[in-house]
Amino acid sequence: xxxxxxxxxxxxxxxxxxxxxxxxxxxxxxxxxxxxxxxxxxxxxxxxxxxxxxxxxxxxxxxxxxxxxxxxxxxxxxxxxxxxxxxxxxxxxxxxxxxxxxxxxxxxxxxxxxxxxxxxxxxxxxxxxxxxxxxxxxxxxxxxxxxx
Length: 148
Ligand SMILES: [Fe+2]
Ligand SMILES: [Fe+2]
Prior knowledge:
By secondary structure, this protein is mainly α. It has helices spanning 14-35, 40-67, 73-95, 110-130, 136-139. Helix 1 (14-35) runs antiparallel to helix 4 (110-130), helix 2 packs antiparallel against helix 3 (73-95) and helix 3 (73-95) runs antiparallel to helix 4 (110-130). Residues 61, 76, 80, 127, 131-132 line the site of one fe (ii) ion (FE2).
């Protein structure tokens, strides 16, 4: 089921909210790939795109946290690094299927598929709800366009 961005996910900053909306749409692409049983090559491309965008988003978010002198900056930055590591780890078995790129998503072992989808959901939803939203009180004191 697609994950839909809603106002409750807003951290009171336009830049971060727009990033989160885009990340959700990238994550929803994965579900489309599985539903439509598209080639594994498409899945790898989607993972690459998600990784690049996430990397850029984390950098933007960390810049904002630094400017706000957020007291949990180090801890939050560490969580970002861990998330990227987990994504790389989950993508590894898929890359190893590189020689059968003509295979489609349905050819993936169920546990690989489930762990990928589960990770992505947990990833964004839990991180945004659990950690990013803690920035909201600080961000609410700034303009919505605060982008240091
Ligand atoms: Fe974050
Ligand atoms: Fe974030």
